[in-house]
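Cardiolipin synthase N-terminal domain-containing protein
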Amino acid sequence: MAAKKHWNELSKRAKTRIVVAGCAQIALQFAALRDLSQRKPQEVNGPKPAWVAASFINFAGPIAYFIWGRKK
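C-alpha coordinates:
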Protein backbone atom coordinates (compact mmCIF):
# COMPACT_ATOMS: atom_id res chain seq x y z
CA MET A 1 0.00 0.00 0.00
CA ALA A 2 1.34 3.41 -0.95
CA ALA A 3 2.10 5.90 1.77
CA LYS A 4 -0.24 8.86 2.11
CA LYS A 5 1.00 12.07 0.56
CA HIS A 6 0.73 15.46 2.14
CA TRP A 7 -0.77 18.37 0.20
CA ASN A 8 2.64 19.90 -0.50
CA GLU A 9 3.87 16.61 -1.98
CA LEU A 10 1.13 16.48 -4.62
CA SER A 11 1.69 17.64 -8.17
CA LYS A 12 0.02 20.80 -9.41
CA ARG A 13 -2.23 18.64 -11.62
CA ALA A 14 -3.36 16.52 -8.66
CA LYS A 15 -4.07 19.60 -6.56
CA THR A 16 -6.11 21.10 -9.40
CA ARG A 17 -8.16 17.92 -9.77
CA ILE A 18 -8.88 17.82 -6.04
CA VAL A 19 -9.98 21.46 -5.98
CA VAL A 20 -12.18 21.04 -9.08
CA ALA A 21 -13.81 17.91 -7.62
CA GLY A 22 -14.44 19.71 -4.34
CA CYS A 23 -16.01 22.68 -6.11
CA ALA A 24 -18.20 20.36 -8.18
CA GLN A 25 -19.34 18.58 -5.01
CA ILE A 26 -20.22 21.85 -3.30
CA ALA A 27 -22.05 23.14 -6.38
CA LEU A 28 -24.09 19.93 -6.72
CA GLN A 29 -25.04 19.95 -3.06
CA PHE A 30 -25.96 23.64 -3.14
CA ALA A 31 -28.13 23.11 -6.23
CA ALA A 32 -29.88 20.10 -4.68
CA LEU A 33 -30.54 21.87 -1.37
CA ARG A 34 -31.77 25.00 -3.15
CA ASP A 35 -34.09 22.96 -5.36
CA LEU A 36 -35.41 21.05 -2.34
CA SER A 37 -36.09 24.25 -0.42
CA GLN A 38 -38.15 25.66 -3.28
CA ARG A 39 -40.28 22.54 -3.92
CA LYS A 40 -43.47 21.58 -2.15
CA PRO A 41 -43.46 18.17 -0.45
CA GLN A 42 -45.89 16.92 -3.11
CA GLU A 43 -43.27 17.62 -5.79
CA VAL A 44 -40.65 15.36 -4.18
CA ASN A 45 -40.47 11.57 -4.22
CA GLY A 46 -40.09 10.62 -0.56
CA PRO A 47 -39.61 12.80 2.50
CA LYS A 48 -37.69 16.02 1.99
CA PRO A 49 -35.57 15.56 5.17
CA ALA A 50 -34.30 12.25 3.79
CA TRP A 51 -33.20 13.95 0.56
CA VAL A 52 -31.51 16.73 2.54
CA ALA A 53 -29.54 14.09 4.45
CA ALA A 54 -28.75 12.22 1.23
CA SER A 55 -27.37 15.38 -0.35
CA PHE A 56 -24.43 15.16 2.08
CA ILE A 57 -23.27 11.84 0.57
CA ASN A 58 -20.47 12.92 -1.78
CA PHE A 59 -21.56 13.19 -5.40
CA ALA A 60 -24.04 10.32 -5.15
CA GLY A 61 -26.62 12.06 -2.95
CA PRO A 62 -27.26 15.18 -5.03
CA ILE A 63 -27.13 13.22 -8.29
CA ALA A 64 -29.61 10.67 -6.91
CA TYR A 65 -31.92 13.50 -5.89
CA PHE A 66 -31.87 15.04 -9.36
CA ILE A 67 -32.50 11.63 -10.99
CA TRP A 68 -35.04 10.07 -8.60
CA GLY A 69 -36.04 12.64 -6.01
CA ARG A 70 -37.95 15.14 -8.11
CA LYS A 71 -41.33 14.40 -9.58
CA LYS A 72 -41.65 15.38 -13.22
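The chain has one domain: 14-69.
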